[in-house]
Write a structure and sequence with these properties.
The structure holds 2 protein chains of 2 kinds. By secondary structure, chain A is an alpha+beta fold. Chain A has a domain of 220 residues: Alpha-Beta Plaits (2-Layer Sandwich). Helix content of chain A is 25%, strand content 24%. Chain A has an 8-stranded antiparallel beta sheet with strand order 15-11-13-12-18-19-17-20, with helices on both faces. In chain A, a hairpin with a 4-residue loop joins strand 4 and strand 5. In chain A, helix 8 packs antiparallel against helix 9. Chain B is 48% helix and 15% strand. In chain B, strand 2, helix 2 and strand 3 form a beta-alpha-beta unit. In chain B, helix 1 packs parallel to helix 2, helix 1 crosses helix 7 and helix 5 packs parallel to helix 6. Classes of the chains: A alpha+beta, B alpha/beta. Bound molecules: flavin-adenine dinucleotide and NADP nicotinamide-adenine-dinucleotide phosphate.
Chain lengths: 434, 248
């Protein structure tokens, strides 16, 4: 089976697929360039694909190496998934300080995209929790990189799209939790201005905040949605973790039922939030990883596959830019029904190419309808460019080389100096035109 | 061995051995890992410690030579204490083209997969018999149930091993020592990295769960996944004059 990205498109075949089993220097010996690591394939576009090259499957690098409960650190190989880490540490009262919207990503993938979670405004990115990492270069050299040693290479590897070499191992910080319960609240948002007001207020009091926006709402109701916010509950309470899903989509469906299913569910939630039924204690798993409840849900979009659009726009322009983006999406009638909206905090990201930066981020899915969809992406990217925004490479299949160069203008020369010449990806070749 | 116990793992860097060892580690077992690559053994040991093993040690040794096996096991017994379980997971797979091109390779397959492993099983069983308890687990293969053109040397070694274990089980029955023969079908591991994956492939974790359960229940022989039992029942009954014409 050819490895895919989460959106299942574009379909790009590597010349060789090599499962790795040992985090050792020989892992790269004799591999034909261009080389790229592939973790759990939870990137959407072509960031984890390498057409015509060598794809190294890292899931066999799945060993824990040390758990230091006095220091609150975990050392493991780069193919370990966040789900496996949580299964190990949660019963002992620990959690990961930063988790993305799915627990089924590898440590290497989380580093390479410097992923963010619902607590970016408090905790920053995943890379900020990486104490050190060990990087294997195509020369066979293994380099230990951290904010203190091999700093340039560390900064290039965090958020570095897998282009600086193969991450073999990493040391991660953990955080204490008293229970897996989350004290959560849902706040109805009548329009976009309520999102900005509600976020500003919630970010003060809540570690985790994220909004779901109804993309069909337009006019005065543009930006109608629900703001989810929560804190880890104080103990005592249960401390259990289950990483598996009860349901799975066994094969691809010929069409997408997602739109209709979620519309009803969303309206029910929205009205419940209005009635003040919003505050409750929920399990962390459902709070952080709502989509993990159904394994392989990406097959819901069928054969055609789907794209994700995720952008960031800086603060002063954010309300205007989001109005333009949401209006464009509503007009197109193409998007998934729900979009995710969140404000990033001001803390600088540790990676040269890290996506998060102070401002607002918007994410949503689009089934591929060919040229219509491509045109919509061009329109959305134009709005982003007009407002000096960014596109998230981990989710991208449409960004132009000009946009990539513009959004990373300052950091690109320093980044290029650290790229391993034997490594490349379909994304990198597309956005650098090389 | 539902209680935390002592486990000696030979061929401890094998994918299947690691899957078994993770489950025993999770129960708080003490393990001694034997294999030829010290760095890999150390990585496996570190992982097992984090997963809950009471104690994990490593011992680097090549398991192919026939001399020195008794001494190796004595050393293992001294370091670990008398084990509750001895797992033999080392193996070498080579196809018939490669074996026909090199008699030396054929000999290595036969020696590691049959002679050396059988001797280790025998030596381990005799040591367990002194205490009158314990289980020897050896990973054989469905490939040993019938000779096939594609890997007849490997198949013969595994078939010989299965037969050897059956006799050893019979011999040990009154001594309180159990012998478990594990017959996996295709397993997704480094050994089969060169083969195209298909629906018949099982994960090492599936094998690990089956082995640990079979040890708990004192089973004699298991096919993993279980569907290989009826499949091999049919395969073993295909008449020879038909069998020799098949391309398997
Ligand atoms: C449902 C869902 C929700 C998501 N939510 C979020 C979110 O909230 N926030 C967020 O930031 N992202 C989110 N993502 C995106 C996801 O977190 C990232 O794409 C992540 O990088 C995927 O990790 P992976 O292990 O699947 O890596 P892959 O997608 O396989 O690879 C991603 C990149 O990592 C590199 N890589 C992988 N392993 C190594 C290694 N050992 N050494 C060097 N490079 C390596 C690859 O080369 C590639 O460039 C979400 C994705 C999904 C499907
Ligand atoms: N994979 C299958 O489809 C399959 C099917 C049926 C049965 N089996 C059997 O299952 C067992 C486990 O195999 P696996 O699938 O887990 O493959 P694996 O991961 O490749 O394991 C094979 C192991 O044998 C070790 N080994 C080889 N020669 C050795 C020697 N001279 N001394 C010490 N150790 C040696 C290897 O050690 P190094 O790490 O040092 O190389 C490796 O750990 C084997 O007996 C195999 O024959 C496999």
């Amino acid at each position: 089976m050819t490895p895919e990205s989460w959106g299942r498109i574009p379909r790009l075949r590597p010349a060789a697929v090599v499962p790795l089993h040992w985090a050792e220097p020989a892992a790269l010996a004799g591999r034909a360039a261009p080389i790229l690591a592939h973790g759990l394939g939870r990137s959407y576009g072509d960031a984890c694909l390498n057409e015509g090259g060598t794809l190294l499957l890292t899931r066999g690098l799945d060993r824990f190496l040390a758990l230091d409960e006095a220091a609150g650190t975990l050392t493991c190989e780069a193919g370990v998934s966040l789900a496996e880490i949580l299964t190990l540490v949660v019963p002992r009262g620990w959690f990961l300080p930063v988790v993305p919207g799915t627990q089924h990503v590898t440590v290497g993938g989380a580093i390479a995209n410097d992923v963010h979670g619902k607590n970016h405004h408090r905790a920053g990115t995943f890379g900020g929790q990486v104490r050190w990492l060990e990087l294997l270069r195509s020369t066979g050299e293994v380099l230990r990189c951290s904010p203190d040693g091999n700093r340039e290479l560390f900064a290039a590897t965090v958020g570095g799209l897998g282009l600086t070499g193969l991450v073999l191992r990493a040391g991660l910080s953990l955080r204490r939790i008293a229970t897996t319960r989350v004290a959560a609240e849902s706040l109805p948002l009548r329009d976009l201005s309520e999102f900005f007001a509600g976020s500003a207020e919630s970010d003060q009091r809540f570690e985790y905040t994220v909004a779901w926006i109804d993309c069909l709402a337009s006019g005065a109701r543009l930006g109608r949605g629900i703001l989810h916010r929560g804190n880890h509950a104080a103990g005592p309470g249960p401390l259990a973790w289950r990483s598996g899903s009860r349901l799975s989509v066994p094969f691809e469906l010929p069409f997408s039922p997602l739109g209709r299913l979620t519309l009803g569910a969303f309206n029910a939630l929205y009205h419940a939030a209005h009635r003040g039924a919003g505050a409750r204690a929920v399990e962390a798993r459902g709070f952080f990883f709502p989509l993990d409840g159904v394994a392989r849900w990406n097959r819901i979009y069928g054969r055609a596959g789907f794209f994700q659009f995720q952008c960031q726009v800086p603060p002063p322009a954010a309300p205007e830019a989001l109005r333009a983006l949401l209006a464009t999406i509503a007009r197109s009638g193409q998007g998934s029904f729900l979009a995710v909206l969140k404000n990033f905090g001001a803390a600088p990201s540790p990676g040269l190419l890290s996506f998060p930066r102070e401002g607002t981020t918007l994410a949503l899915d689009f089934p591929d309808r060919g040229e219509r969809t491509a045109r919509l992406f061009r329109e959305l990217h134009a709005v982003v460019a007009d407002h000096r925004g960014r596109i998230y490479s981990a989710k991208d299949a449409h960004m132009s080389p000009a946009q990539f160069a513009a959004q990373h203008r300052e950091a690109l020369p320093a980044f290029r100096a650290q790229v391993d010449p034997a490594f490349s990806s379909s994304l990198w070749r597309r956005v650098t035109g090389g | 061995m539902a209680e935390p116990g002592r486990v000696l793992v030979l061929g401890a860097t094998s994918a299947m051995a690691q899957a078994c060892a993770r489950l025993w580690a999770g129960r708080g077992a003490s393990l001694l890992l034997v294999g030829r690559n010290p760095d890999r053994l150390e990585a496996v040991a570190a992982d097992l410690r984090v997963r809950g093993a009471a104690r994990v040690e490593t011992l680097a040794a090549d398991l192919a030579p026939l001399e020195g096996q008794g001494a190796l096991l004595d050393q293992a017994w001294a370091r670990l204490g008398a084990p509750d379980v001895v797992l033999l997971a080392q193996g070498l797979l080579a196809d018939s083209d490669a074996c026909e091109a090199s008699a030396e390779l054929t000999a290595r397959v036969l020696q590691l997969d049959f002679t050396a492993t059988a001797l280790l099983a025998q030596e381990a069983a005799l040591r367990l018999a002194r205490r009158g308890a314990g289980t020897v687990v050896a990973i054989s293969s469905v490939a040993g149930d019938r000779g096939r053109q594609s890997n007849y040397a490997y198949g013969a070694a595994k078939g010989g091993l299965s037969l050897f274990l059956e006799g050893l089980r019979n011999r040990m029955f009154r001594q309180g020592v159990r012998i478990l023969t594990v017959k996996p079908g295709f397993v997704d591991s480094p050994m089969t990295a060169h083969l195209r994956r298909n629906a018949l492939f099982a994960s090492p974790e599936t094998v690990g769960r089956a082995v640990v359960r079979a040890v708990d229940r004192g089973r004699d022989r298991i096919y993993v996944p279980g569907f290989w039992l009826p499949v091999m029942l049919v395969v073993r009954h295909v008449p020879g004059w038909i069998w020799k014409r098949l391309r398997l």
